[in-house]
Amino acid sequence: MAKSSISTNRTRNYACIVYPESAPTNWIELLEDMHIPALISPLHNQDTLPDGTTKKEHYHVIILFGSLKSKKQAKAVIDVICGVGTEAINCTSAYVRYLTHMDNPDKAQYSSKDVIALSGADYEALTYVPADDLAVIQDMLKYIKDNQIISFSRFVDICRSNNTEWLKVLALKRTSHFFLQYLKSLAWDMEQSDKVNYKEDF
User: Fold this and answer.
1) Is residue 197 part of a domain?
2) 137 beta partners
3) CA 13 from chain center: how many Å?
4) In total, how many domains does the chain have?
5) Which domain holds residue 87?
6) Are 112 and 127 in contact (CB under 8 A)?
């Protein structure tokens, strides 16, 4: 029984809150020096309480241990950066998405570009859900149609130069064949049309 109790109280990932006013000025460096994968949210400076009062500025920090740790072991790490709380994470991807309130449109929104990843933590992999790709693909298809693009290489160059999120979907998510076929079909449709400026009429 004791062995079972210990195992259920150990997990890999923990979270805490860091208040800048009470943390060491170099707390991020201290965390990085421990060589434990971690994710740090943008500074939450627009969060509000139910009565509309602005919350104290804070960061959400996720510690991603490589093996199971007890709450006491996790707290020892969190204490170094003066973090508040030692919360065992039930669903890592959901908590990582919460760093920017990605799935909470009623809350203040923060940029994913301001998330800090330490020691190999992969923010993009942990926040990925297929529905996100579908929304991006819709934007990509609209751009192709609106700009009458029929060259795959040209579209790749546009993604590479102007939109790394599009390039990621195109190069890493096995969508290249889909876009190649779409561009070929679009080129054929344009050849069949007598219109100089091709627009699909729905």
Assistant:
1) no
2) none
3) 17
4) 2
5) 2-127
6) yes
